[in-house]
């Protein structure tokens, strides 16, 4: 499997949208109008995709620049048939590597994300810390999580 940046064109974006549509709209019943947003076309957004050795797109995420040394990771989605095989972990390791390469200040970058409640334990295994409280987004409980990583 390889983790790669998606070309910022409609072909590349459609690859990510297909995975996100399957996971968020079809599986989790998000309103379709909530799934694609202004960050998809923002030049400060980096789209990332996990591709199998056979060339199948398995998972995606996007990295949104917030300020020097700080990014927000959003729209993390793994196709249902690829879950449980370490794809999500490899995707997030690749996202962290790309965030360090592209957004680090003095060799470190602060990663922030909003985890769906069921995914909190997964992110904790990757070193993220959950903030207190939580909130609903598209009918799903989310928690802010973060960590700082260094090169």
UniProtKB/TrEMBL annotation:
**InterPro entries with a match to the protein in the record:** Acyl_CoA_acyltransferase, GNAT_dom, GNPNAT1-like
N-acetyltransferase domain residues are: 1-150
Family matches, as Gene3D superfamilies: 3.40.630.30
Under the heading SUPFAM superfamilies, the entry gives: Acyl-CoA N-acyltransferases (Nat) (SSF55729)
Q: Name the PROSITE patterns for this protein.
A: GNAT
The protein's matches in PANTHER family, at most eight in alphabetical order, are given as: GLUCOSAMINE 6-PHOSPHATE N-ACETYLTRANSFERASE
Listed name of the protein: GNAT family N-acyltransferase
Organism annotation: Arcanobacterium wilhelmae
């Amino acid at each position: 499997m390889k983790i790669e940046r998606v070309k910022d064109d409609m072909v590349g974006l459609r690859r990510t949208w297909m995975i996100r549509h399957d996971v968020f709209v079809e599986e989790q019943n998000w309103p379709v109008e909530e799934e694609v947003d202004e960050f998809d076309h923002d030049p400060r957004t980096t789209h990332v995709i996990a591709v199998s050795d056979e060339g199948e797109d398995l998972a995606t995420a996007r990295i949104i620049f917030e300020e020097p040394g700080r990014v927000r990771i959003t729209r993390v989605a793994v196709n249902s048939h690829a879950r449980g095989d370490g794809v999500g972990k490899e995707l997030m390791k690749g996202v962290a590597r790309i965030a360090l390469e592209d957004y680090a200040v003095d060799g470190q970058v602060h990663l922030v994300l909003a985890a769906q409640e069921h995914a909190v334990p997964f992110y904790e295994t990757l070193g993220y810390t959950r903030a207190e409280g939580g909130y609903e987004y598209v009918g799903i409980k989310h928690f802010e999580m973060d960590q700082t990583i260094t090169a």
